[in-house]
Amino acid sequence: MRKLIVTLMLATMATGVAAETYTVGQQDKSFTEEQLTIKTGDNVEFENNDPFFHNVFSLSDTKFFDLGSYPKGESRTVEFTEPGIVEVECAIHPQMKMTIEVEE
Amino acid sequence: MSKWVWPLLAGTVLTSLAPFVQAGETEYVFEAGHPSLQHWLMPEEVPFPEANNPTEARVELGKKLFFDPRLSGDGNMSCATCHNPVFGWSDGMPTAKGFQSRVLGRATPTITNTAFNALQMWDGRKDSLEDQALGPMVSSVEMNVDLKVAQARLMALPGYRTAFDAAYPGEGITDETLAKAIASYERTIISTDSPFDQWVRGDEDAMTEAQINGFKVFVDPDKGNCAVCHSAPNFTDDGFHNIGLASYGEENPDMGRYVSVPLASMKGAFKTPTLRDVTETAPYFHDGSAKTLEEVIEHYALGGTVKDNLSPNMKELDLTTQEKADLLAFLQALTESKEPIQLPDLPL
């Protein structure tokens, strides 16, 4: 009985703080989303669907990251821990831009 | 004997001209006019910003300004001094010579089809042709002019006052109208009708068999892999890559795009130039280090010289001597035949 209660508590806690993971593709030299709204603690997985390399990055104050260059079929994930606006771009193809709004 | 030779020869030709190549999502069929090729045709309309519709008066004014050396400090350099139509709108030199013949650090990029560029300059630091136009004028190592002085010179000439008023009524001779007019003229320097374009449209005779085979090498990811960066339709991905030139291995190398975008992959990365009219724009690369297209092909065949921070698109290529020759033949099919340039009458 005690074991069951602990398990349920852990499950409830896990549900309460569960972070979502969103997927944004890079396809035809564009991001599949122009704008995305997420919550603090959520993750975004950037998946390359193009037959050439992309280099996703952001120089935003809210979240600075550089995922480096990676090829088709690979993805890399970023956790967004602070609220604010994050401009995301591809370093190789600067016409690729999107915005992530991170809410409290 | 001849009975044996012919089937063998036919087999060789069929092998070298296999009809299909899969490049990314595109399955190419190498037949003139085939639907799989049509994305290589340039748009019929040249893009322009909403605030600068290229009217005839604006283009005509921009052409005068482009060729007018009075827009430089010493009155001896125009835009066309470096962007010279007889050198494919470049200057035929490894790197440019600026104010008082000072040797500059980078090759002069062509003007051809820059209207279609997402960003301007080798390092992409300018957003538009309007944004770019005044940069070389005010640069102390290039045209080295005070724009107020240049505009006073133009104001003193009735022909220019009339031309500015026709192009931009009531706006006067300002930094903005000067830049807009030059950009409007640059948007007329377009190459969209090369033998390659004619072949894509359906003219079977526009390209030779060697050129068609060269195109196949160009797009094949397992051969030339050129189209990974020199992509359709303007033979550029508008992107930035470190292609492993020897100059990147020198002390204090030109860091290129990294200055504007401080990310590791951008160290030594430069904008992919168009290949349209490429036979007219030697020497090649941002540092002018390749005298010929043969040297360019050899550089890529080696997968670059300096491997530090090399673009992941670069790799050693598996190309035969014949495939390199075909690739060269294809590049020669990217230059369109043009009418001679008519120089403008400048106001005196």
Jot down its keywords:
heterodimer; A: 104 residues; alpha+beta; Immunoglobulin-like; five-stranded mixed β-sheet; 15% helix; globular; disordered N terminus; B: 348 residues; mainly alpha; two-stranded antiparallel sheet; 31% helix
Q: Which CATH top level class of chain A fits? A: Mainly Beta
How many strands of chain A? 9
Series of H and E elements of chain A: HEEEEEEEEE
Gyration radius of chain A (Cα, Å) is 17 Å
Class by SSE composition of chain B:
mainly alpha
Residue share in β-strands of chain A:
over 45%
Domains of chain A, number: 1
Intertermini distance of chain B: 77 Å
How many H/I helical runs of chain B? 12
What is the straight-line distance between the termini of chain A?
37 Å
Overall shape of chain B: globular
Return the CATH architecture of chain A: Sandwich
Q: SS-based structural class of chain A?
A: alpha+beta
Radius of gyration of chain B: 22 Å
User: Residue ranges of chain A: pLDDT <50 for 5 or more in a row?
Assistant: 1-15
Spatial strand order of the main sheet of chain B: 1-2
CATH superfamily of chain A: Cupredoxins -  blue copper proteins
Number of strands of chain B: 4
Fold topology:
The complex is a heterodimer of chains A (104) and B (348).
Chain A: H1 2-17, E1 21-27, E2 30-31, E3 35-39, E4 43-48, E5 54-59, E6 64-70, E7 75-79, E8 84-90, E9 97-103
Chain B: H1 2-16, E1 20-23, E2 26-29, H2 56-66, H3 79-82, H4 129-133, H5 135-138, H6 147-155, H7 158-167, H8 175-186, H9 195-201, H10 209-219, E3 240-241, E4 270-271, H11 293-301, H12 321-332
Antiparallel strand pairs in B: 1-2, 3-4
